[in-house]
Amino acid sequence: RLFPAHTPTVTFDDVAGVEEAKQELYEVVEFLKSREKFQKLGARIPKGLLLIGPPGTGKTLLARAIAGEAGVPFFSISGSEFVEMFVGVGASRVRDLFDQAKRNTPCIIFIDEIDAVGRHRGAGLGGGHDEREQTLNQILTEMDGFDTNTSVIVLAATNRPDILDPALLRPGRFDRRVILDRPDISGRIAILKVHSNGKPLAESVNLEILARQTAGFSGADLANLVNEAAILAARRGKTTIEMQEFAESIDRVIAGPERK
């Protein structure tokens, strides 16, 4: 089975509010762009990085941005896709994915929701357990099989690092962790700027005030907020998006659409 590879057009400029994570991940971009520099000095770049954070904090976007910055192919799959009815399918799918990646180096493999297959062994209930274990074992086997010159970097995302199998976190596997948290106020201002770029905002719109009113919002929530405000303004026949639309959209994002 073929996995579509594409080189994303997203770059770090499109990912706001996670500056520390971007700095850590820039090393990976450097390695993918000029790996000889690292190899000459015998530096071992991590094979696997775990992106940890609550839903909506930009784990997938950041993974795509690394590939976009480095200009390399990006293969992605979700852990929940692996857990199929037929025993053995997950493991063979992992093999196919890694084989294809090795033919397209340098590149990135991104496994979203790795906790779907990578949870602590022995914590499963029912028949899906063996299948998950086989899939996890195959991922570990593939990563252990990389030699030092294999320029495939495996990124995995989870919001539940506490339930992951310790075998995944050993040196040479996902031994580097990057934490993404919900953005602070300056992060929220930066994210709101990215998403309102190109949209006609009224003079009255103050992104700093909006950032203060959206404590606890994730990056995805803020993207949703700007979009909701644009929809409201369009429905009202306005030519610009005003503070009123943003204020109502904050409530919509928190509570869902108003029930009549």
From TrEMBL:
One of its GO terms (biological process) is protein catabolic process. It is found in: Membrane. Its cofactor is Zn(2+). In the C-terminal section; belongs to the peptidase M41 family. Keywords: ATP-binding, Hydrolase, Membrane, Metal-binding, Metalloprotease, Nucleotide-binding, Protease, Transmembrane, Transmembrane helix, Zinc. Residues 45-184 form the AAA+ ATPase domain. It comes from marine sediment metagenome. This is AAA+ ATPase domain-containing protein. InterPro entries: AAA+_ATPase, AAA_lid_3, ATPase_AAA_core, ATPase_AAA_CS, P-loop_NTPase. One of its GO terms (molecular function) is ATP binding. Gene3D superfamilies: 1.10.8.60, P-loop containing nucleotide triphosphate hydrolases (3.40.50.300).
